[in-house]
Design a protein that fits this description.
Blueprint: H1 2-26, E1 43-49, E2 58-65, E3 70-71, E4 86-91, E5 103-111, E6 117-125, E7 133-136, E8 140-142
Parallel strand pairs: 1-8
Antiparallel strand pairs: 1-4, 2-3, 2-5, 5-6, 6-7
């Protein structure tokens, strides 16, 4: 009887230790462990438009984190979306590439119709936050 109780107690302790170890591995080092996040998968995108607000098909889109000088590719989404001119910049899968306070991202793209290039900067946060989010910057990038 005592042995059965002993085995149950040891099993319970091992299970608790296992769960606590798993939850610590899911949090990046230095992030608060008491943060409760939703399971929503967030993406941030921009629209490339002309002066009249019409969608513009683009090529050679590049997203560069100006803090790290590292190119970012939206993970888990692919880049171009189903709508012309709409481009996914980052997703929650890119959180670790971004700081909690936010990083300036330089976006460059070329209009496929006339080969004109446009550049814009938006600020996006990630890091210890639950999801990526835009801190500042335009939703539409306009080709002049």
């Amino acid at each position: 009887m005592k042995r059965t109780l002993y085995v149950k107690v040891i099993s319970a302790l091992l299970i608790i230790a296992g769960f606590s170890a798993c939850s610590q591995k899911l949090k990046p080092a230095g992030c608060p462990t008491d943060q409760v996040c939703t399971m929503i998968f967030t993406t941030l995108s921009v629209n490339f438009v002309d002066k009249a607000g019409n969608p513009v098909t683009v090529k050679d889109v590049k997203v560069l984190n100006l803090r790290t000088n590292v190119a970012i590719l939206a993970q888990g989404m692919g880049s171009m979306m189903s709508q012309p001119g709409k481009y996914t910049l980052v997703s929650d899968a890119n959180k670790k590439q971004l700081s909690t306070e936010g990083d300036d991202l330089r976006i460059t793209a070329t209009n496929t119709a006339n080969n004109k290039m446009v550049t814009a900067i938006i600020k996006v946060s990630g890091g210890c936050n639950c999801h990526v989010s835009k801190v500042s910057g335009a939703d539409n990038i306009v080709f002049e």
